[in-house]
Design goal:
about 375 residues, alpha/beta, Enolase-like, domain 1, TIM Barrel, 2 domains, eight-stranded mixed sheet, three-stranded antiparallel sheet, 15 helices, globular, binds calcium ion
Amino acid sequence: MKITSVKSHVLSYDLDEPLGYSQNYYTKRSAHLVEIETDEGITGIGECFGPNTIALANKVIVEQVIGPLILGRDPLDREVHWHRAYNGMRDHGQKGMPIQALSGVDIALWDIAGKIHNQPLYKLLGGAFRDRIEVYGYGMMLQQVPDLAERFASESAAIKAMGFNAMKMKIGKGPEEDLRLVKAVRDAIGADIKLMVDANHAYTAQVAIPLGRALQDLGVYWFEEPVAPEDLQGYRDLCESLDMSIAGGEAEFTRWGFRDLIEKRCVDILQPETCALGGISEYLKIRDMAHAHFIPVVNHVWGTAVCVAVNMHLLAAMPDLPGGAHPAQPMLEYDTTPNMFRENLLTEPLGVLDQVAANGGWVELPTGPGLGIELDYDFIERYRVNA
Ligand code: CA
């Protein structure tokens, strides 16, 4: 079998209401899918992390830098293709956009492999350790409303009503406002729901440590990206100073980037983003490196239904850490803010929200070969960005 084409679909639409995090507000939803075709009619789908203009630039890397390196080659030679592409790009970017682009290509090659073997991805990864996965609801993005605490209180109550037992909210507006927001949410959802906060690296360690102490008192389960991804010492200081879990890793790339984060024990919970860090092949190396250091992995998930499906397989195939009769279980991150690319992209939706409502916060594993998904090409044509 030979690879005959490597192409990107960049999709976008305008949001009704801007949605923000501590660094920026989005006015558009976007998506970057990778599609790899073969001479035997099998097609693989992948996804690259990176919004809007980043996606358009990554499309050029996928189609004009990585594509020519693998055209005409066997799609099953994933490791060979990964290293060839990485070595070809290394002098021009060991992190960031080239690696995001490579991620989508690698994921599409795994999808092809699953379809060739007629097995779901998790089988190729060594099998499922669990037959269902707990889901946590991501929501409460920053919004430009008169009283954000009031908005967060009603949104968190709605997420609880959807069936989630754990949820995550944005912070990063300054410690005082952050604590007001977290208190409003805690009051709305009660003490029994697991609550995580995400600062998107808004702070220095000097500010984040006392803020973390106050968050701890409000029963926050993890403090995500308190400081800049480059600030490994700041991460380390936070881990030393606080009892609560420090989470991070979504803005790190490849085994070499994660090596330092893991070996220096900069996080209590590692959050690798497979659509950014180098794809499934690279994720597996990073997961195993984290587990070798007994650091739990809770995958970062942000994107379309493709990314969600990828992570359902990865979480199914994650070994228990440590082993035992009652091991702690990984959770699937699921965005609950409006996104058609998550809910309407597939001919048969994943139905995560329906399952969460029916099963008390859990989803079952996908069953089809590869990622187990089919794209709706009419939908894709409707939202394609013509660049
Ligand atoms: Ca995050």
